[in-house]
Amino acid sequence: MAFNLNPFKKTSSTQPSQSGFGRSSGTSTGGGAPVKADLSALDFSNMSQQGAIEVTEIATGIGVVYEEAAVLYANGNDRDAEQLLTAVFDDPTATVGEGLWMMLLDLYRLTGQRERFDARVIDYARRFERSPPAWEDLSVQPSKRRTEAAALINLPAALTAQTAQQLQQICVIGRKSGSLRVDLGRVRSIDDQGCLLVSQTLTQLSADRVKLTIFNASRLVDLLSARVKPGQADNRDYWMLMLEMLKYTGESSRFEDLAVDYAVTFEESPPSWESKQPAQGEAEPAVGENSSGQSEEEFFFDSELTGSSSEAIRKLDEFALSRQMVIVDCSQLRRVDFVAAGTLFNALASLQARGKIVQLHKVNAMVGALMRVMSIDQVAQVMLRG
Q1: The whole model's pTM is what?
Q2: Measuring CA to CA, how many Å separate 216 from each of 213, 220, 221, 249, 259?
């Protein structure tokens, strides 16, 4: 079963709707005083910088219960969030839409409350006349689904002067992370300026001591070989780049033959051999492209996003560098705090401004609610888990 955030329609009505609750001064709990979440513990001190989300952006008109439960959970107040939601469910006069149902059921899954989940899920099935979400204990810290890997950069089909900005960004990422993986599988052409820029990039990465792995280097070697003519002392940049790329293909014999030709042609000593072939077992990315022309590899958010300088959000920006469609698997993302949500919004807004399409898949309903409150669904496509 899959959901997106569209069921949570914004409304200015003060009456309950099928998608949640409209804005009002409080939430009825069956005739008692309105329940109001205490937001005083939240720290918004880091949200004042230019471009950050103002706290007033919470007032989106999608329901005070929906908003406050989302913020309470984001702030680690699981018990208060649960009490706020169950007060509405226990009110016989309230009409509860599917949005709040999914929040409560996911809150039970996130806190490992199997019995309460089972009790509510029967009412869910009766209310919506369809199979309810299955139980899954999301309270258990999941194991890492993959080891940390260096950022993978796919160079474009044509290496020209137009590639300068991307190559500059590669150097920036390399300096920050200390390691990079570059795939040349899409390269189809290279001109004089592109050759010079690639050579300068490799020199800079070496000077910065960046661990560099290059896949499909043979693609570039074949293109360069057409411009390398033994006995003709021109196109020196092509010679040098071809010799460098042969180190990444591991073709030592071909390197030595070309090095001899270089020495004779230019009457100077050639570079020495050094194997830079990818380590055994490090599989090359597929050369084929999907319908959108981008890699099908997904980015993963794990556990929790907290603080205004989340490393995971920075890595997402690096991951998106060479992609038009950016798929983010959030199935293991349990919580996003309020400050991290603001940072994430700013990062996703920047990607959107650069023409990227970001899809956040399998988001739990509690995190999804905060994303709705913080307008993250306006800069990315947010899809809830079943």
Answers
A1: 0.51
A2: 10, 8, 9, 8, 21
